[in-house]
Amino acid sequence: MELEKLKSLMMNKEVMVESRWELIEIDSVGSVKEISKLNKLFVMILDNDTKIVCKVDEIQYEDVDTVNFIHITPEGDEIIIFRVKII
């Protein structure tokens, strides 16, 4: 399952979260404390109390340590909402 793969990749690891969409402003570095997903609602909490809560349509693994969280517009365009890189 996708959530288990994300947890095994990122839980308790130091990550850099970068916003890639003007509607969400996130730029933070911290250790991942919690990851959960309910339908398309994705929640990630870092140890520095950064909370990311947003609708995610797709998750792309850019490489072994970078994950892109994608929103798909009604027109079918893919927008990277934010990127998480393990550091």
Structure description:
This protein is mainly beta and 87 residues long. The chain has one helix at 2-10, and strands spanning 14-19, 27-38, 41-46, 51-55, 58-63, 66-72, 78-86. A hairpin with a 2-residue loop joins β5 (58-63) and β6. It is globular and about 35 Å long. The two termini are 24 Å apart.
Task: Give me some keywords for this one.
seven-stranded antiparallel β-sheet; 87 residues; mainly beta; globular
Name the helicity range: 10-25%
Q: Compute the number of helices.
A: 1
Shape: globular
Q: Mean pLDDT across all residues, rounded?
A: 91
Spatial extent as radius of gyration = 12 Å
Give the neighbour order of strands across the main sheet: 4-3-2-1-7-6-5
In the predicted model, the low-confidence regions spanning at least 5 consecutive residues are none
Give the beta-strand count: 7
Order of helices and strands: HEEEEEEE
What class do helices, strands and sheet pairing give?
mainly beta
Largest sheet: 7 strands, antiparallel
End-to-end C-alpha gap = 24 Å
**Percentage of residues in DSSP E strands:** over 45%
